[in-house]
Design a protein that fits this description.
- By secondary structure, the protein is α/β, with parallel strands linked by helices.
- Helix content is 61%, strand content 8%.
- The strands form 2 sheets. Strands 3, 4, 5, 6, 7 and 8 form a 6-stranded mixed β-sheet that branches. Strands 1-2 form a two-stranded antiparallel sheet.
- Helix 19 links the parallel strand 4 and strand 5.
- Helix 1 packs across helix 15 and helix 11 packs parallel to helix 13.
- The longest helix has 25 residues.
- The radius of gyration is 28 Å and the shape is elongated.
- The mean pLDDT is 87.
Length: 507
Amino acid sequence: MAAFEVPKPTGGDVAAGISVGLILIPQALAYAVLAGVPPQRGLIVAVIATLAAAPLASSPFLQTGPVAITALLTFGALESISRPGSPEYVELTILLALLVGIIRIAIGALGEGGIAYLMSQPVLIGFAPAAGLVIVESQIDSALDVASPGGPVTAAAIEILRSPSDWSLEALAITIITIVVVNGARRLHPLLPGVLIAVVAGLLYSALTDYAGSVLGTFPITVFAPDLTLPWSKLPELVVPAAVIAIVGFADSAAVARLYATETRTPWNPDREFLAQGVANVASAIAGGFPAGGSFSRSAVNRLAGAKTIWSGAITGALVLAFTPVSNVLARLPVAVLAGIIIASVLGLLRPQPLLELRGFSRIQFLIAGFTFVMTLLLAPRIQWALIIGISLAIGWHLRREVLIDVDEEVRGLELHLRPRGVLYFASAHEIERHFTDRLATNPEVGRLVLHCGALGRVDISGALVLRQLAVDAVSAGIEVDVRELTAASRKILLRVLGNVPGVRIG
């Protein structure tokens, strides 16, 4: 298929688009609340982002729109800057979506979509369950129908749980039943719309019992015209969170697209997917929405329902658009139902097994994952900083491993044999130099240095120049230098850098 060729829709696309749309409508409202914006903004994202991503999407299965982790990252980025739900806060979510979109478009346009593969798995293994816990904690007030005391998410949840006399047992029961229905339906059959069933049941209960707890209420259905009157002065504070959302929020999209590309033996292009997700976020911002991403759960439903082409996403967006004028039929929906939907959507993240398995694979990577887990809980809702800390630790450990190049040494008569193993670059090359000078000091009779390069991987120019200087110093001290066993990865650069040094023999 050509890069942007539009295929014909199939019957499976129609069935899949409708199936996902029925799930997306209540999820969109719930994730908008999680992001700290009015519910109708979720419908905007569900329509605009989904429709905008569809023509450019690389994967026919990936469903774009509001997602829980991106909504939480949005809330975490903005709650300390502005009051959630306020006009300024809503404008900040628009600006954040615009930045996320621009960053993703830039990544895709520059052909750097491979960055989707570079996220440290230990960091994600530690982050995902902690983020799931934070999302659950953020819904405690709605699940129990009590006013949130404010402050850090974990502390607020603990404060609520310490006052059972304030709880609404009716709201708690609604939340639990919603969770059971959503997950139970999924277990019975992946295409059974548990979210829709829970919403209909919640509406019926509210109407028949004249439910007195918190309900969704009516909200204006407004078409938001493009408006550049945004809090641009806050732009510097949003760059880092936008980059985190743009890259980390793409991890789920990449995971589901790669999985289904493998299972269906079809190609997937991360550059094109970054472009599609970027355009979706820019479109969401123009329409007044918040950052969007690819949904693992909705994508799974999309594929199981028979999606074959990118038309399924467009049909989903069209269905939500058709529902929007009558969305106030949900006015009597208990807020506890939305809390249950959100909690049910992240229960799959609360699995300790990957973290425990990591302990058996690598102690240091387990510690990095565990530290990321703890920092995510402590810094909530500003979990983007926990991710940045975890990623920094992972990169730092990798660089340390790269610096610690292994060098085997052996003295045979008048010959000093050095066998370096690893990547030779500016930070690791000094190890060879150190081994040479240390052995030379204890074996001053050495007259030849033999460098065995067969176990060297990549060699950069800085590492090659360090070797050149070592060779020059050795020759100046009357020591012959013999470079052997050049690999394909090192031959070209070492021949170029060492080939014209007098007294150096390259074999």
